Amino acid sequence: MTKPGQIRLLVVDDHLVVRMGLVALLKRRKDFEVVAEAENGAQAVERFREHRPDVCLMDIRMPKLSGVQALAAIRAEFPEARVIMLTTYDGDSDIHGALAAGASGYLLKDVEGEELVFAIREVHRGGRYLPEGVAQRLTEHSKSPQLTPREIEVLELVAKGLSNKQIASVLNFTDFTAKAHVRNILEKLGVEDRTGAVTEAMQRGIVHLE
Amino acid sequence: MTKPGQIRLLVVDDHLVVRMGLVALLKRRKDFEVVAEAENGAQAVERFREHRPDVCLMDIRMPKLSGVQALAAIRAEFPEARVIMLTTYDGDSDIHGALAAGASGYLLKDVEGEELVFAIREVHRGGRYLPEGVAQRLTEHSKSPQLTPREIEVLELVAKGLSNKQIASVLNFTDFTAKAHVRNILEKLGVEDRTGAVTEAMQRGIVHLE
DNA sequence: ATCAGCGTTAGCCTAAAGGACAATGGCAGG
DNA sequence: CCTGCCATTGTCCTTTAGGCTAACGCTGAT
User: How far is CA B30 from CA A31, A183, B8, B33, B127, in A?
Assistant: First the structure.
């Protein structure tokens, strides 16, 4: 079944179309073999256990278990697992999480065929792969301070259009605290008001719609 | 080449992976034939002219020429053209534009294989196809007042974090006017402040990131 | 044990936002 | 012709936001 020298792959994405596109792309290489597919994070962990692929391509945003959570679960069990995260590019916030959780690579879904193949080979060899712009943004934003969990919590409520008072009420503290958090958020994001903070946060992938 | 009874398709998407996924999905049906692909709106118009497909699957958001623009261009030249728009679901604002421009269908990219096939058959027969939830939202928001072009212009600046005064300066009117527009926007969107307006507008697809 | 970062509370002050209401000119549709 | 919608400019008033500064208890790292 699996010939020596083959790279055995697990493809994880909740969109059927994307999954099929990836598989179709990979099939054109004789040394690639897609041994399994999964459509959510939980399934990804199971499939990984069953098939022990050489490399796993995994979407970051998925129902049930997010890509980063699945990645963490897999690497807790198989520390040597090599996983390349896929994203439609929501921002660079996910990158930190993904790399922190032990991702070996990070690709945008508008990736060209050659780049995908190269990345997989690179990661299979034990290396890492980050696209041009992503690696650049990583170092850029590494100097810019990152938000604390609490600040993110506040930011999400800000994005919903809540006032400081309403935020305070939801999170059970005074509006002074809400103001303090918002002030810190504005400064860290380098914006002047909460509206700018929301769009900036969305561009960076810190908060999302819904 | 093309057997009678075949449905000839044009697939348009700027993402290689999605394009390949769609083609792979469609290939499994014997009566479907993908006669051409395009990776942007301008190319889509050319390909349509060359191949005159029975049905065109087209992404809404693309570089060069957006899906809606390409759709309009195609239908200006070929009024009988049947086009199904694809989206990752940014909101329902695009739906109105797409349907107004003469789209025969509207599909989310997380579409199941069967639904895609059904939609194509339906549209090929001269019918229309809208997914469950989309058709519902169409009637919902048809009663909610829509923003005027000027208001959208203001809203985009609001989303950038500009103050009323700054908006007034950019659009060359007084801050009274800016306030008036913002007030109308808040009321039409059913929110209480500009921050809520931004997220609401993004959910509806009225404004976008970048 | 000290220090830094975090979360929390608090004051004061100016600028901005938002609600309510009113009025003008322009322009398209009935 | 006139009515309605749009864009524009106002006023008055209340609430909110945001800048600046300062504190306190807590936790984790050095």
Answer: 29, 61, 11, 8, 21
Contact status, residue B204 vs residue B141, Cβ threshold 8 Å = yes
Cβ-based neighbours of A149, under 8 Å, separated by 6 or more: none
C1' (C18) to CA (B47) span, angstroms: 51
C-alpha B116/C-alpha B119 separation (Å) is 5
Backbone angles phi, psi at A39, to 5 degrees: -115, 10
pLDDT tens series, chain A, 210 aa: 556 779 999 999 999 999 999 999 999 999 999 999 999 999 999 999 999 999 999 999 888 888 888 999 999 999 999 999 998 876 667 787 788 888 999 998 888 899 999 999 999 999 999 988 777 777 766 666 789 999 999 999 999 999 999 999 999 999 999 999 999 999 999 999 999 999 999 998 899 887
Give contacts of B24 with chain A, Cβ < 8 Å: 20-21, 23-24
Token reading at B110: 């997380």
Q: How far apart are CA B158 and CA B110, in angstroms?
A: 31
The residue whose CA lies nearest the C1' of nucleotide D5 is: B148
Distance from CA of B100 to the nearest CA of A (A): 26
Q: State which residues between 140 and 199 of chain A bring their CB within 7 Å of strand C.
A: 148-151, 168, 171, 173-174, 176-177, 179-181, 193
Record: contact B161-A191, CB cut-off 8 A: yes
For B68, the enclosing helix (H) or strand (E) is helix B67-77
CA-to-C1' span, B180 to D17 (A): 19
Question: Contact B160/A196, CB-based, under 8 Å?
Answer: yes
> A29 vs A7, A8, A111, A126, CA distance in Å?
10, 12, 16, 20
pTM of the prediction? Answer: 0.87
